Amino acid sequence: MRHGRKINHLGRTTAHRHAMLSNMSSSLILYKRVTTTVAKAKALRKYIEPLLTKSKDDTTHSRRMVFAALQDKESIKELFGNISGKIANRPGGYTRILKLSDTRLGDNAEMCIIELVDFNETLMDAKTAAAEKATATTRRSRSRGGKKAAGDDATSATEVTGEAVAPAAVVEHSAPADTATETVKDGESREEAKADEAGA
To answer: How many whole angstroms separate alpha carbon 109 and alpha carbon 78?
Structure first.
């Protein structure tokens, strides 16, 4: 059982693991993306995200703290120069792990790409394109008035579909005409009474 084992030792001693994560962090800062195994990428994410947070505050103390972890002047210059400006408004979550479908040839380990979120140009372009598409006008927002008149609906239906639409049939209902009451005498049928009225 692995109760409380929060650190993946990655099969290395402590000094070896710190040196490896430091080198991988420097590579990620300089090249913006690194291809590695999933286990190493998850360990690297826990290692580098606090360093990226420290880089937002450009003071001598934070530079020394980050340099103690990285031990590389070029990556410090890149981190406090270019990267800190781009991640200034992001409240954490500076890295992204993208799993690859291929596994490593020798030991079949799962491979992935770990990259800085703000430096993936293709995903940034896709996000801005999606935002522009969302702000584009839709058919519903283009209509200027509320409900149209009945005649406008008939003409718009013909314009949209291109088919001839017959106007709605108007059926008039009128009350039945008043019929004259017929007086029928004793022993006389209705037909005889109608014949007497017609003759009269």
So the answer is: 31
